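Table S2 (continued). Query chain:
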Amino acid sequence: MFRRITLVTAATAIAAGLALTGCSGGTTAAGTPGGTSNGSTSSAPSAPAAPAAPAAPGLNTPLTVGSFEYTALGVQDIGPTAGTSPLTKTAQGTFLQVDLKIANTGSSSATFIVNYVKLVDAAGKSYDADASATLFASPDQNAWVAGINPGNAIQGPILFDVPAGTAPASIQVSDNAFSKGQTITLG
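Corresponding output:
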């Protein structure tokens, strides 16, 4: 048993020594890398590059998340006030409005809630939708919360109260309040 452990340890040490010696080519007296006569160095083959992540869909390109198919139709800064009198809301900064179409592609009724959408700015900061501003800005008030039957869709503005000058980059859309969701670019 002791002899077997000694042999395994010795073989491991020899293999490690050979690996270290093979990796360090050193330099020749002329200062060029050692190991080859043409001055090039040999290196271990590199690992294959990871496949690039697919580009996120942009404006007017549908994205399916769970039972919902989201299509961002546009984005604009509508200023510090949302809604019409007497139902108005004033922003702490300014309101960015994302016009969104939400279709139910599932086989049963699903409820959309404005909290399923988050805005991400160019600096990577994330903003929640402003539910009451969205309610006041929507002419038929269906983009705030809506039960959508299979095959039906709603369309309306989703508002975000952001600091003035915020550059919108994307939205994160999901089919529930607990998932990170998927990205739709806005630029």
